Known about the structure:
Number of helices: 21
Strand content: 5-15%
Shape: globular
Structural class: alpha+beta
Helix content: 40-55%
Distance between the termini: 42 Å
CATH architecture: 2-Layer Sandwich
Number of strands: 14
Number of domains: 1
CATH topology: Creatine Kinase, Chain A, domain 2
Low-confidence stretches: 1-15, 258-263
Amino acid sequence: MPRSENNRRFSSIDTLDYKSGLEFLRAHSPADLARDSLIGIEKESLRVSPEGQIAPTPHPAGLGSALTHSRITTDYAEPQLELITRPHHSIKRVLKELDELHRWVYQHLRGELLWSSSMPCVIQGEESIPIAQYGSSHPGQMKTVYRRGLGYRYGKTMQAISGIHFNYSLPEAFWRALMDYSGAQEDPAAFRSEHYMAMLRSLQRHGWLIPYLFGASPAICESFLNHQPTTLEYLGRKTYYEPFATSLRLGDIGYQNRQEGNTGVRIRYDNLKTYIGSLENATETPCPEYRKIGVVVDGVYRQLNDHQLQIENEYYSSVRPKTVLRGLEKPVRAMEERGIDYVELRSVDVNAFHPLGVSESQLYFLEAFMIHALLTASPPISLEEHDRIDNNLNLAAHWGRDPDLVLRKRGERITLRDWADELMNELEPICQWLDRDLPDAPYHAAWREQRWKIDHPDLIPSTRIVEALKQGKESFAEFATRLSRQTADYFRRRPLPAASAADFKAEADQSLRRQRELEARQEESFGEFLERYFAQ
């Protein structure tokens, strides 16, 4: 029964705290609230030669159209595959589909490998990184021009970094129960969206825990630096690293909007309205630095525009609110009209020690981490705290394994390990709740595995990689190539059954037909197409 306004458990998302959130969970069965949650994975991987160099070949035709295939596409570079699972109610089903996608891909690689690490393989200069091509249709040209602009703005090498995206949403039953429990009277879509925004703020505040536990990029190939000066230490054999690094991908040399401090790009997560407004402002505000690049030079588009962000996706963030798009709909318009559908956590490195790039245990832990973020006090983030959040993430990425590392929590100094202990203590009851009626207790098993790493940093992936490089006397490129070959053997020994392969082929053929149809029915010019798109 809905509570009266005077007896609400919490009057707004700002006053929802861990204690009341846990009370809410325990008052319900996870079968009623969480079993219908949707989970999806996006995994990026470079195609490389058997010797570990970036593949110069085009996207394999047998995989279908990178423009219109819903599950097999490319990211920045033509050889940078992106595998996208459908959303599933079960982690096991997510991993089953990801496994099938890998097996299908390996049937079309013709001797090439999928790179086993987030940081790139051997790169022979930026000219060796071909940007992704999507055909002659206007949507395809837009995707290619956008990537061309990224190359001019940030350099191609940074774009060749790969990662894992964990997509998560809670079912309508959860939101109905939370509205009833809180006594909320607002529109259900608005209620859901603002709680997702609070969740995103909490994920930012506590996001440093992810590179500590799952960071797997403490070292890079010398070629990544492209002869530029660096503060990284030389480990030997054309390998640079930082002794306490967990995820250089998330650090200063990885994904970032380098113009943020100079151009005033500051995306706000106070609520959905301010998020949309600040993001839209960045996509509409010209940037003097990018104006120097030019938009159309000698008849060729160098970038979509000279704004702070060409489109919304250019904003690099560890977490994003997402709405399922309908056709060529702008993300901000979709969110404005229908609210947030799910949250995308983007800070997970490719797990070099697992053939899928991510393990079952990781996904169970991440689901609990997402629920914890939703049910934790999460007031708006001030400009000062925004800087602290960025600094905490950067420190964890570069120095996370330093036992004396100190972060800033609400302005106070606290060691990473002490703060990690606090978070793990709060996560345990959530995992126990999720395990209710599950005889094998997978969530608590995942929690125990990650909890052990807090006191035993020799077990986290970044430490294992550094130790392997030191003890095996391999370069980073040799190490990652060896693991990539092992992964290739794992999948090539397990080709898909004929019926599954036929389904994948039909899907690939259908995507190619859709691309041809798009290319055949264009009437306006590309410039007119862009004008119409941005006018939304």
